[in-house]
Design a protein that fits this description.
53% of the residues lie in helices and 0% in strands. By secondary structure, it is mainly alpha-helical. α7 packs across α11 (191-202).
Length: 205
């Protein structure tokens, strides 16, 4: 029952987030370009592409970066770089930026042949014996996620960024996932599995 209430609350909040002004966001996006690229497609692998991401998800992350800064890291998503960047942003700014970057097309990536077998198995099926759910359950067969439920688009994402986030979820350094779902999955993945899965997702279309 608690899970249902949390999901319903998330659905309601996501519908509120996606109300920004893309044109206004474009005018405010100059400082984002240094890490995420002018078109939202970061060429630095450790930073995420935010082009084409669901606006509600972008806005949620921005709010949680700021929350971590204002609570001394006890809540939200801790990241010293992003935390500093968002402190001056209003909720309207966050909404506008989310609307702008979500309107841009994400660039494609490719998956190395060596990562396809393991990555595809984990992504599509998971590992029932180890209690690892498939990624498709939340992110969909094409990695597009779902805007209403708050699950992000991960197809075409920078593999290095995905790898870093899985490692952070595994160590609980990142813990802003709903019901600790990502932490639960990542905790059961080996280093090699994280690498293969990250690279598979990067080339998923």
């Amino acid at each position: 029952m608690k899970k249902l209430a949390l999901i319903l609350a998330l659905l309601a909040s996501c519908s509120v987030w996606a109300q920004g002004d893309a044109e206004a966001g474009k005018a405010k996006a100059a400082t984002c370009a240094a890490c995420h690229g002018a078109d939202g497609n970061s060429i630095m692998a450790q930073y995420p592409k935010i082009a084409g991401q669901h606006p509600g998800y972008i806005e949620k992350q921005l709010k949680e970066f700021k929350l971590a800064m204002t609570t001394g890291g006890t809540q939200g998503r801790n990241d010293p770089v992003m935390g500093g960047m968002v402190m001056a942003l209003s909720e309207e700014d966050m909404s506008d930026l989310a609307a702008y970057f979500s309107s841009l097309p994400i660039s494609e990536n490719a998956t190395p042949e060596s990562s396809i077998e393991v990555g595809k198995q984990l992504y599509n099926v998971g590992d029932a014996e180890r209690g690892i759910a498939s990624c498709t359950a939340c992110h969909g067969p094409r990695g597009n996620g779902t805007s209403l439920s708050g699950f992000p688009k991960i197809s075409g994402q920078n593999a290095e960024y995905i790898k870093l986030q899985l490692e952070k979820f595994r160590s609980a350094q990142r813990n802003n996932d709903m019901n600790s779902m990502m932490q639960s999955v990542a905790a059961k993945l080996s280093d090699d599995e994280i690498t293969s899965l990250s690279q598979y997702v990067g080339g998923l279309h």
